[in-house]
Amino acid sequence: xxxxxxxxxxxxxxxxxxxxxxxxxxxxxxxxxxxxxxxxxxxxxxxxxxxxxxxxxxxxxxxxxxxxxxxxxxxxxxxxxxxxxxxxxxxxxxxxxxxxxxxxxxxxxxxxxxxxxxxxxxxxxxxxxxxxxxxxxxxxxxxxxxxxxxxxxxxxxxxxxxxxxxxxxxxxxxxxxxxxxx
Amino acid sequence: xxxxxxxxxxxxxxxxxxxxxxxxxxxxxxxxxxxxxxxxxxxxxxxxxxxxxxxxxxxxxxxxxxxxxxxxxxxxxxxxxxxxxxxxxxxxxxxxxxxxxxxxxxxxxxxxxxxxxxxxxxxxxxxxxxxxxxxxxxxxxxxxxxxxxxxxxxxxxxxxxxxxxxxxxxxxxxxxxxxxxxxxxxxxxxxxxxxxxxxxxxxxxxxxxxxxxxxxxxxxxxxxxxxxxxxxxxxxxxxxxxxxxxxxxxxxxxxxxxxxxxxxxxxxxxxxxxxxxxxxxxxxxxxxxxxxxxxxxxxxxxxxxxxxxxxxxxxxxxxxxxxxxxxxxxxxxxxxxxxxxxxxxxxxxxxxxxxxx
Lengths: 182, 357
Description:
The complex is a heterodimer of chains A (about 180) and B (about 350).
Chain A: H1 2-41, H2 56-70, H3 74-87, H4 90-93, H5 108-114, H6 117-120, E1 122-123, E2 126-127, H7 137-141, H8 143-151, H9 169-180
Antiparallel strand pairs in A: 1-2
Helix pairs in contact in A: 1-3, 2-3, 5-9, 8-9
Chain B: H1 2-15, E1 24-37, E2 43-55, E3 60-70, E4 76-88, E5 93-101, H2 107-111, E6 126-127, E7 138-139, E8 142-154, E9 157-166, E10 170-171, E11 191-192, E12 205-214, E13 218-228, E14 236-247, E15 251-265, E16 272-287, E17 299-308, E18 314-326, E19 329-340, E20 345-356
Parallel strand pairs in B: 6-7
Antiparallel strand pairs in B: 1-2, 1-20, 2-3, 3-4, 4-5, 5-8, 8-9, 9-12, 10-11, 12-13, 13-14, 14-15, 15-16, 16-17, 17-18, 18-19, 19-20
């Protein structure tokens, strides 16, 4: 009896322990999957609508409408919602409080994975096609252009579908450095 | 110990909490259009079309759209474009009931809202508001009934299917006599599609669309629609369409071919006859941001050719330039040239401000 209790406890502990990293990875990959689905589905009939057009709550009501139009599955719809939600944080909507952070907390690769850049762009020849390839973009257009684009995607294109990502200036620099090596 | 586990599990659950799930949202679109035509007074039209969306539960979603415009005598005209309920049966299947936009072709269900339609006018084969001097083949159809929608993964692509049963068409109450084909307009059977209360003949119309898509770039669909329209239920109207869509991040090419067949009683000999009419359009668009010049980033060029065959034939070119102010707002300019079969030419200029919200 005691044995069973112990085993159950150990099993619970184990699943719990392993569940943590898995679930946070799952979230990242759900956002990346959502970005890919968004880039494949959401610009087919109309210009892709940027995440900032609605609040998270509004998106949760708009998305079932678009699930129908786009013939998406329920699972796909939730992934797109997760992607849209991922960029709608207080940092973006309000002030960039994080700008004062002394250190970038995430590496370029982490940021690119987290925000699903490859859902819409090619990097190392891999990814989606909603936006232009990012291979060679720093060489072609310059560091300051790419920085400006990441700070405010609408600065040179009011109809841009690219979300304004909740990133600090230092993190933007990381991405620009990283893309500069491509 | 278990309590602690349960608690911490709760903390993780909260990250995916239901706090961000809404119940109600308002969206919609509107436009202001200026039209200058040679043979008519120039005019300014304006519409406001709100959409109300409700999420009752994970499985149930309600949508409705009202169109507000100004009528001939200055009165406010309100039309219910759709009001329906979706039941998400499972991951792939949705059942829709109510008054909904029929999934026939592309333009009707997917492209007609003015912030989506890249041109300020409808393709020549469709009727939805004015179609200038052309007599359209088919309206943007919205009707009462039930639709079952499915999506399947098939091979590298996706298969979309819709099948519906609706009230169906009716006899046009007032037959407009006059110009058009030899023998007068009366020889074109008058079929009405606007949903009305009840049904004139107790016979439903049925239809559907089956499409195959390689996302994101290619979608090809076949649609059909058939229903009795006469009061005695003996005369039938049917239509079918093929739509082809090629979409990239900066360019699109879309085309639709529609054929219609209408039974009618020949007024000369009293025999039942078949009236056939067809048409098609092809539209291309290209975003000038491809040029890499910042000033051209918000500009898109559009060209469309429409053709109506058989009775009341006509050919139309439409050229447009859109200036995008937002992803869902544009200032659109277009020039339209229509040649009718009797040689009449109708040129129009459009300026439209369209917005989706």
